[in-house]
Amino acid sequence: MQSNTPAYGSGSDSLDTSETANRSVRADWSAYATAYDLLSEHNPEYQAILHDFEAFLATIETPRIIYDIGGGTGNYTEIAARACPESEIRLAEPDAGMIGTARSKLAAHKNISYEALPLENIVGRGTADLVVCVHALYAMPAPEQRLEDMRRLLRPGGWLYLVDLGRHMNVADWRDYLFSQLKKKQGLAGALGVFWQGREIAKQNKAILKAQKNGVYWTHTEAQIASAATAAGFEIQRQEVVYRGYSDLLVCQAKP
Ligand SMILES: C[S@@+](CC[C@H](N)C(=O)[O-])C[C@H]1O[C@@H](n2cnc3c(N)ncnc32)[C@H](O)[C@@H]1O
After folding, report:
1. Closest ligand 1 atom, CA of 132?
2. Torsional class of 119: left (φ above 0), alpha (ψ -120 to 50), beta (otherwise)
3. Which of 135, 205, 218 to probe ligand 1 with, by most ligand atoms within 8 A of CB?
4. Is the pLDDT confidence value at 81 over 80?
5. Residue 63 needs a FRET pair 20 to 30 A away by CA distance; which of 40, 83, 172, 207 works?
6. Ligand 1 mean position to 98 CA, how many Å?
7. From the CB of 161, is ligand 1 less than 6 Å away?
8. Residue 37: is it exposed, middle or buried by C-beta count within 10 angstroms (0-12/13-18/19+)?
9. Neighbouring C-beta atoms of residue 35, cutoff 10 Å
10. Which atom of ligand 1 is nearest to the CA of 75?
């Protein structure tokens, strides 16, 4: 597994200027937040994972404490809050723009608390019944240690619902796919309108690709993420390739 540079720290002193500049390329999650839900709403592949998560929740005993790690604008938190009204849902999200959007969107739900922290700074051990982490692990520093953090948060037998972008984000491929989906539903003018409003997404996806190519963001095969999850103390109950082949979905349980 490649190692990541710290997401919130400084780079190494030994890097020259251009290399330092290169390795500082990351997504600007606050800029992403401005249009995140607009395109997610129109992305059938994003919606398919939300539905899968909701269906998964219906198959397990109601989790009492749920963490949504790197929860972004709160779409998974919202499903959990609705499906498990008696549960305590903790949305952990270090980006101010993302968590701000989540807070205002989910204000009506009283069973959600917000932790404006990266995973590596969250304290807690063995209390969670479910950890959800969708499309966030790849952007974290040292993902194998972050998997250990998720294991630490869970009680033995607790669930991890993990989806992670593993392959290079082909920006043109996603643009063509989303455009054709939108055109089918809203016509050419409608598709162009959504693309214009969501133009920040293409910019941030390019930054993600750059960070993947520089090794700042983690890329992995199915087998690599499976072995990282196993090494972190998880038993994999289900694994699938999702998101048009770009991502891996793993449903795991924390080993005692
Ligand atoms: C692509 S968004 C995914 C949001 C949400 N999970 C979803 O699928 O809609 C990735 C999120 O990971 C968050 N993130 C990045 N580094 C993180 C870290 N070290 N700990 C927790 N979250 C992190 C970002 O701030 C961003 O909001």
Report:
1. 6
2. alpha
3. 135
4. yes
5. 40
6. 8
7. no
8. middle
9. 18
10. 9
Among the listed residues 61, 206, 79, the one whose alpha carbon sits nearest the alpha carbon of residue 134? 79
pLDDT tens digits for range 98-131? 999 999 999 999 999 999 999 999 998 889 999 9
Tokens encoding 87: 């549960």
Q: What is the DSSP string of 83-114?
A: H-TTSEEEEE---HHHHHHHHHHTTT-TTEEE
| Token output for 25 | 């390329």
| pLDDT above 70: residue 6 | no
Cβ 29 under 6 angstroms from ligand 1: yes
pLDDT value for 20: 54
17 Cα to the center of ligand 1, angstroms: 28
With a 6 A CB cut-off, is 134 part of the ligand 1 pocket?
Answer: yes
